[in-house]
Design brief:
This protein has two domains: about 5-65, no CATH class; about 70-165. About 65% of the residues lie in helices and about 0% in strands. The protein contains eight helices and no strands. The protein has helices at about 5-15, 20-30, 35-45, 50-65, 70-90, 95-110, 125-135, 140-165. Helix 5 packs antiparallel against helix 6 (about 95-110), helix 6 crosses helix 7 (about 125-135) and helix 7 (about 125-135) packs antiparallel against helix 8. The longest helix has 26 residues, at about 140-165. The chain is elongated and about 50 Å long.
Length: about 170
């Protein structure tokens, strides 16, 4: 299963993928060797296409490729792991990841309830804390400490997905 399309499906479910993101993602998938009739049509869609048609092509492509559209909670879990992996791979800075985790929590706060602390419904309290700690920075050593904490948390989040999958 194409991990980039799985990630895009999760982003789509939580409202983080715009209609304009879908055709270029289809082109990228075709370049990677992923192929389906609807994916080809989606790759050729222009910005003048009806957004409902573009979404329909995207959903059809996912079905043809047997990529399930996750529920919001499942999408959030997939994105947590994806975000953590982006930090561990060096694609995102720890600060960018902390911001993205806050955005994820804000998007889903009405659907995934927090129990006691902001972000605990998604198990991302440490990332929420890190995001707001960056705002309070006074010097570079403080940022390095927050960065280390984010990296440790990313390792935990990426590791917990492996344990739950196994």
């Amino acid at each position: 299963m194409d991990t980039k399309l799985v990630d895009l499906a999760a982003r789509y479910v939580v409202g983080d993928a715009l209609v304009d993101d879908l055709p270029p993602a289809a082109v990228d998938a075709l370049v990677r060797g992923v192929d389906s009739p609807s994916l080809v049509l989606l790759a050729g869609a222009s910005s003048k296409e009806d957004p409902a048609q573009v979404r329909s092509l995207f959903l059809a492509a996912l079905a043809e490729l047997q990529i399930p559209l996750p529920a919001k909670k499942g999408a959030a879990e997939l994105l947590k792991v994806s975000y953590a992996q982006k930090v561990l791979a060096g694609t995102w800075s720890p600060r960018t990841a902390a911001r993205k985790f806050v955005e994820l929590q804000q998007t889903l706060h009405g659907e995934i309830a927090d129990r006691q602390y902001v972000g605990d419904g998604l198990d991302i309290v440490a990332m929420i804390r890190a995001h707001y700690s960056y705002d309070d920075l006074a010097n570079v050593p403080d940022q390095e400490g927050i960065d280390r904490m984010v990296l440790l948390e990313c390792r935990r989040l990426a590791g917990s997905s492996r344990r739950s999958a196994g």
